[in-house]
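During the reporting period, we have paired protein sequences with C-alpha cells. One record among many follows, to show the layout:
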Amino acid sequence: MTPPGLGLVALSQNAWSILETKKSSSYYFDLCRLRSAAEKNLGVFTPAISLLMGLDAALRYIRNEGLERIIARHSLVADTIRNGIKQKGLQLISRFPSDSLTVVELNNANEVIAQLYKEFGIIVAGGQDNFSGKVMRIGHLGYFFEEDAHYLLNSLNQVLG
C-alpha cells in the first residue's frame, strides 16, 4: 500500500554469519555496511523519507483494519471487478488471477485507458512489451474498496458504450 521504491531485506543470523565472512563486490548493496550504519542509527545514503513515512502509515492502517479483514476485502474487490468484467463479455488474461491485479484483454486498450482517466479520473495501466495496446491492467491492492470497484465498472460501462 505504498509507492514503489523501497526494498526490505531480512536475514537470519546464519545468513549474517556467512555475509560477514565475504567481501562485498557491490558499493550500493553492501549489507554489512548498511547494517553497521543502521546500528548507529545512521544511513549510508539519503533515505527516501516520504516512502518510509508512507510505509509507516500503511503498516498502521494494516494494524488498525486487521490483516484478515484486508485480505477478505481484497478478495471481495477482486471478485467484484472480475465478475463485472466477465459480465461485459470481456476476457481476463489469467486463468488464476491474483487478488491484487486484474488484466483485461482489450483491442483498444490505450484509448479506453486514456478515456477512463480523462473523463473519470481513473488511473489504470496498459500492457507492456507484447501486450502493449492489447490489455488494461486494473490494480486493486491497498486503499481500494468495493465502492471503488463499482465506480470503475460503471465508468468502464460508459466508456465502452
User: Anything to note?
Assistant: Helices lie at 13-20, 31-39, 49-65, 67-87, 109-120, 146-160.
